[in-house]
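>> received
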Amino acid sequence: MSLLWRDEIGAFLGPRGIVLARMRRGIRTKCMIENFLRLEPAHGSNWEPAIDAFRQHLEDQRWHDANVRLVISDSWAHYGLMPWSRELGRDAERLTHARLILKKTHGDKVDEWTVSISESLPGTPSVISALPTALIDELNSISAASRLRLISLQPNLIVSYNSWRKNLDAATSWFALVDDGLLSAMHITDGRCDGIRSVRCSADWAVEMQRMQSMWRLARGNSAAGPVYVDVPISLRKQAEHDNSNLVYLEADRKPQNAGDRVSILKAASL
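>> returned
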């Protein structure tokens, strides 16, 4: 079978649960199997329980022999913003600079992470993302054991933003994602990210979003608010219904085109 026409599996791994979906590819995509595994709440930085559950679930051969796209909870991801520099021409130089930026906040822990840098236009900042290298190694090993071809492994905020960016039609806005007790947000100006923040939040995550907006305005001396586009599970929307007229919920009602789309829909309804 051609690798281009192999079935595709999408999976989200987080501290509170795992979402999986297998799609048959072809002229008409079709969801073959899907599942949601709820986990006992773990400490935010502890990814081992989710990895163990994922490994055990993939012992079922119905999940074997496919391409796989993995989305990792922001609980295990770290972000930063790298200003554009004419002097940083080579990839190795940019990666070294990105690590230095992360080290200013996180110290030597950065040595245990795999760092990626988003593509950006000349003169514009790049988003830095990092995941634990040990976590990535485990996922590569699990995928190989199940004859899965890992074609994408990214943190949740990056995947969600890339999925919704065409829907963000305001010149100035926020894109926010609520994920396992964490609020991650990107400030967008003219289609580019010029600020990124992640904070722990309670169920009333909108309070933290308002605080983040206020701190941004104070730091930048900018009174422009703009809409806040939000990717948040349905179960957490009621807590933000009061006094938040600038929130625009992103509705995952489009027909899933791939396994990643299907996982996003299941995650919004389940977690």
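>> The two ends are 35 Å apart (CA to CA).
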